[in-house]
Amino acid sequence: MPVxxxxxxxxxxxxxxxxxxxxxxxxxEDLQESLDLDSMDFLNFLxxxxxxxxxxxxxxxxxxxxxxxxxxxxxxxxxxxxx
Length: 83
Description:
Elements: H1 5-16, H2 31-35, H3 39-53, H4 68-78
């Protein structure tokens, strides 16, 4: 059963920034800036997201997942096909 993108994003963010208030972040705000994530935190966020969703995000696409809206859209577009 596919993982809900919002649930996956929240869980991945909580794993790298447990104190972060994701609800306070607007959909188009830069996650690193809004949540004070350094580059390793952001990388660990993407790794956690890939582990929970099965969607690998190559470095060339990092710019596409810098916001909550971008993450949701990317996951929707690249979700593994249900089989």
